[in-house]
Design a protein that fits this description.
The chain is of the alpha+beta class. It has one domain. It has 1 helix and 3 strands. A hairpin with a 5-residue loop joins strand 1 and strand 2. It starts with a strand and ends with a strand.
């Protein structure tokens, strides 16, 4: 059987550093923002992450977009 995909939504995931451990390794945290429209441009998603985290003291170490798709079996 064939499968058809359709874009659903995306999740914006931001990784940021909150400090250093006793051994000097970075302490990283992640925050997820669900329900990003699949039609939103990657640049816009990145810009929103930069704007949000530009308001706090922790530096951003990564921005990720996880796209979600629905898989439907076609007959």
């Amino acid at each position: 059987m064939a499968v058809t995909t359709s874009a659903r939504d995306s999740v914006l995931v931001v990784t940021y550093q909150t400090g250093l451990s006793a051994t000097g390794s970075p302490i990283l945290r992640q925050r997820s923002f669900p329900s990003v429209k699949s039609s939103t441009l990657d640049q816009d998603v990145f810009d929103v992450a930069q704007a949000l985290y530009g308001l706090q003291q922790y530096p951003v170490t990564g921005v990720r977009r996880d796209n979600r798709f629905e898989l439907v079996e076609t007959v």
